[in-house]
Design brief:
This protein is an alpha/beta fold. It is built from 2 helices and 6 strands. The chain binds flavin-adenine dinucleotide. Flavin-adenine dinucleotide binds next to β1 and α1.
């Protein structure tokens, strides 16, 4: 196992029947071969902020579900959650237990459960204020 390594190239070499792999470790580039290459690089870890004008002018705590800051205390805070996908379905009910007020901004029906009534889907038992129909362009997951 080697840490701090980024695979920058993996090419199948037909003649030798092996993978030729390039790995970046800081300033150093290693070349290696392997018979079997298991790609565990994930598909959802290259996250990005949605394109919302003024988003980064917000002076409060701004947090993305893919870059969660576990130490932040939401107790008593007024919180807005943008989105109602599978992460929001998990996040909203938990935040609603501690936030003083929770707004959930819902661009469209959740793909995780497209046929569910939105109010029930997001938070069946918690006092959440839903805002429907905001036009948000998300470039990546969430
Ligand atoms: C916000 C969010 C919430 C999610 N919630 C859930 C959930 O509730 N339930 C669920 O089942 N799934 C959820 N997922 C999906 C989640 O991606 C998977 O569950 C799980 O993390 C995937 O594991 P993995 O090991 O395949 O990939 P990852 O956990 O993404 O790990 C891949 C690793 O590979 C590294 N890597 C990437 N490219 C390279 C490279 N070229 N060279 C070297 N290393 C590289 C990355 O830095 C990362 O450390 C969620 C995803 C996101 C973004």
């Amino acid at each position: 196992m080697q840490y701090n390594s980024r695979v920058t190239k993996a090419i199948w070499d037909e003649d030798s029947g092996t993978w030729k792999v390039k790995i970046q470790q800081g300033d150093k580039t290693i070349e290696d071969t392997c018979d079997v290459l298991i790609n565990g690089s994930g598909v959802l870890n290259a996250w990005s902020w949605p394109n919302i004008p003024g988003l980064h002018d917000f002076k409060g705590h701004l947090c993305h579900s893919a870059d969660w800051r576990a130490g932040y205390d939401f107790a008593g805070k007024r919180v807005a959650v943008i989105g109602n996908g599978s992460s929001a379905i998990q996040i909203v009910p938990e935040l609603a237990k501690v936030a003083s007020k929770l707004h959930n901004i819902v661009p469209a029906a959740a793909s995780a459960c497209p046929d569910c009534p939105l109010e029930q889907l997001v938070a069946p038992d918690v006092p959440v204020i839903l805002h429907f129909g905001l036009d948000i362009k998300c470039s990546d997951h969430h």
